[in-house]
Amino acid sequence: MRLNTISGRFAALTIIFVLLAELFILLPALSSFRLDYLESRLERAQIASLALLATDETLASDLESELLQNAGVFNVVLRRDDVRQLVLASPIPGPIAATYDLRQNGVAQAIDDALVTLFDARNEVIRVIGAPVNQAGQLIEITMPTQPLREAMLDYGLRLLLLSAAFSVLTAILLNLAAQRLILVPIRRVITNLSTYASAPDDARHIIRPDARLVELREAETALESMQKTVTSSLKQKERMAQLGQAVAKISHDLRNILTTAQIFADRLEFSADPKVTRAAPKLVNSITRAVTLCETTLAFGKAEEPAPSLNRFGLAGLVQEVVEAESLAGEAAGQVEFLTDIPAALMIRADRDQLYRVLSNLSRNARQAIEGTGQPGTIEIGAGESDTGWWIRVGDTGPGLPAKARDFLFQPFTSSTRKGGTGLGLTIAADLIRGHGGQLQLTRSDEEGSEFMIHLPRATLDEAARGEMTAL
């Protein structure tokens, strides 16, 4: 058992605390032992005195020395009937160093006297006063040496410390076994689960099942279970996205070839003699061109990356008009959805035209499909403006609004779709594209009266702002 383990430190601390507790017990115990020792000497001296008083005077001289030796005292004084009488006497080897009256001895004073006796190694003579037992007088007084008392106290204290040490070791062993069973075994189970889960985090069978009896450990296992479920779910979702990216990348390769062929034929439509075909041809060419570009960047999205935006200045009104025309033609119910635009004709913004088209197209398509899902007519409004720091574009609708669950996971892939058959990627793509511009896409309102999204585009990208600050320095 090592000290750098929980069980080792637990056992060491248990022994230390038990010993400290025994030390606090030792002082009163030594004090009590000293008082018992002195009272026993008083009793022996009283018995010796009574034995001497009961004999003849001729026998008293022969017994006195033996009685004092057996009592362990130098002399004995009795007070009876208010008369003080020296009953037993022998030569005293030195002056009396201290007097102790056991009749007036408090707890604190008794502990202090015990410490003085214990740490003073000199063999001195002390006077002890007490009350005789069985009311055999008013007072008994003896003189005695301190060396036998000190040796008896040291022997008693040593035996008490040895017993305390044995008790502390036994307590530490029992507590250690209890800690092993109640604490360390569940902790090792959690550690084993973490190691197993780390080897295959996508395997749901390795998720821990809380079963600890201790409340704290069960809470820890519950939190670990929740974390592991979240991680496993995220890994599976990322794996599906990676697989989707690979699949779409393969499809886009072939689709790009098909669209390239269609683009060639669309170019030839510009030379048609039919005026309607001639007017529709540029729009068809632009749509196919954007589809080809989208196919070429599909692999980047499959890697959770988007190409850096190519920033150029262009008129926003023309771009919004293209989006409106495309969505009007794609509507399932003609005339059900009305588009209203409030774009200043002279408003010029700096952004990637194709990426911004994708953003506005996604927002408009979601709004149109939401309105069509109600079976009631509705309106989609697209407005824009500018400030000193950038441009803003507002896309609002009069649809049914987003459910609370959809709002909680609005810009997360595969979770924000409210339409049957939807992938939930539209808003994710739109938010990523706007972030690539250094801007932000926000849901500003969603209730029973409709939803409203706001796009904020800065005039300068983050890199340009940083370069501007360095130039200013």
Automatic annotation (TrEMBL):
Main EC class the enzyme belongs to: transferase
Transmembrane segments: 12-33, 156-179
GO MF, one annotated term: phosphorelay sensor kinase activity
Domain Histidine kinase: 250-461
InterPro entries the record matches: HATPase_C_sf, HATPase_dom, His_kinase_dom, HisK_dim/P_dom, HisK_dim/P_sf, Sig_transdc_His_kin-like_C
Pfam families in the record: HATPase_c, HisKA
Reactions the enzyme catalyzes: ATP + protein L-histidine = ADP + protein N-phospho-L-histidine
Keywords: ATP-binding, Kinase, Membrane, Nucleotide-binding, Phosphoprotein, Transferase, Transmembrane, Transmembrane helix, Two-component regulatory system
Enzyme Commission code: 2.7.13.3
PROSITE patterns: HIS_KIN (PS50109)
UniProt superkingdom: Bacteria
Name of the protein in question: histidine kinase
